Amino acid sequence: RFTALPFEHNLGVEFYSKVPDLKVLDIASELRTNARYVSDCIKNSTNYSFTQYVNSYRIQHAQQLMRDFPDQKISTIYIDSGFTNETTFFRAFKAITGMTPKDWKNLQND
């Protein structure tokens, strides 16, 4: 995990999962600042692109949903986490956790 960004306390994990097509301008508007500031903060603090940063929150949310609702279908999980399709969800999940959602879920049950 990386250092908290100056604006992170204003936005919760749920914020990132409610808007599937979230753009840096959306966050900037929410915070009443400019997109360049938000983008620079993310890159300088995390070394993530905006998309990687948002996806990291979405994956955290998906993991929490899988913990809280272990019988929930993955299709529901990825939609509720802000992903628009399964392929993008699986790709992001594997990039962030190093495993597939199914493998991660199985590991939680061991």
Summarize the structure.
The protein has 110 residues and is mainly alpha-helical. Helices cover 66% and strands 0% of the residues. α2 (24-31) crosses α3 and α4 packs across α6.
Using only CA atoms, what is the Rg? 14 Å
Structural class: mainly alpha
Helical segment tally?
Answer: 7
- Encode the helix/strand succession as letters: HHHHHHH
Distance between the termini: 24 Å
Residue share in β-strands: under 5%
Mean pLDDT level: 85
Morphology:
elongated
Quantity of strands, as a count: 0
Low-confidence stretches: none
Percent of residues in helices: 55-70%
The profile of the biggest β sheet is: none
Structure description:
The chain is mainly alpha-helical and 110 residues long. The protein contains seven helices and no strands. The chain has helices spanning 13-18, 24-31, 35-46, 50-68, 74-80, 86-97, 101-109. The chain is elongated, with a radius of gyration of 14 Å. The two termini are 24 Å apart. The mean pLDDT is 85.
